[in-house]
Amino acid sequence: MADIDEKSGISASIPDWSRERITHFWDPGKKLLRAIRRYQHWRGRGPLGRVVSKYWVLNHWFWSLMTQSELHLTTEIGGGLRLTHPTGIIVHPEARIGPNCMIFHQVTLAGPVILGGHVDIGAGAKLIGPLTVGDHAVIGANAVVTRDVPSGATFAGVPARLISEI
Q1: pTM, full prediction
Q2: Contact 132, 155 (CB under 8 A)
Q3: How far, in Å, CA of 87 to CA of 45, rounded?
Q4: Mean pLDDT throughout 41-64?
Q5: Mean pLDDT (whole number) for 7-31
Q6: According to the 3-state scheme, what is the secondary structure of 39-103?
Q7: CB atoms within 10 A of CB 8
Q8: Which DSSP helix (H) or strand (E) runs through 31?
Q9: For residue 39, which phi and psi values (nearest 5 degrees)?
């Protein structure tokens, strides 16, 4: 599987940080991500870091409340994550999200789910781990995924099954 998706031109390993750039006053998904990234940057950096990280904890709490989402402060998130409609997204603290992924509203990553690079997850999908989703995979809306998804595959349905593969 190639590192860059031929259709979209999006990399599975090199983060596109412009996808997280805050462009509007009301950009709740991007502001939630900023709070997580700033907290992770400042935690454990001495007395000043403790004070600054507490500010970002409060900021994270506010944006979690606004989006009604649970994206833990310690979650490992690759760069370029897009939370297109960041309402009701639940991510287990042990989940890992690769670079340039896109997660729509009402998605649940339950358990230690590992997303590869450039994974798109449709609205309402549930991924019940432990499982791994390969690079450039697509999970359809409202799919219930309970097993590994290979790179380049499209999974949909309840229970989710292979729809297409590159």
Answers
A1: 0.92
A2: no
A3: 32
A4: 96
A5: 92
A6: HHHHCCCHHHHHHHHHHHHHHHHHHHHHHCCEECCCCEECCCCEECCCCCCEECCCCEECCCCEE
A7: 11
A8: helix 28-42
A9: -60, -50
